[in-house]
Write a structure and sequence with these properties.
Blueprint lengths: L2 H26 L44
Length: 72
């Protein structure tokens, strides 16, 4: 390679890096310094409530039991 070829490759690489930097800066942008309010999570308690007796009672249908309708 000639010296002029190497110089052209270095010039093209430098221009490409500069263009990529400015395009990435335009697309991504800079982080804002605005403050944001964040809600805090409510703590989890160890208390367990009793289930509703209208849904969970001793006469309720058990969906895990196989039901056969007909002669099969």
């Amino acid at each position: 390679m000639k010296k002029s070829d190497i110089a052209v490759i270095i010039l093209i690489a430098s221009v490409s890096i500069a263009v990529a930097y400015f395009v990435a800066d335009a697309v991504i942008g800079k982080p804002s310094s605005a403050s944001v309010k964040v809600r805090t999570a409510t703590p989890i308690s160890a208390e367990v409530e009793e289930p509703s007796t209208s849904v969970f009672n001793k006469d309720a249908i058990n969906p895990t039991v196989e039901v056969v309708i007909g002669n099969e």
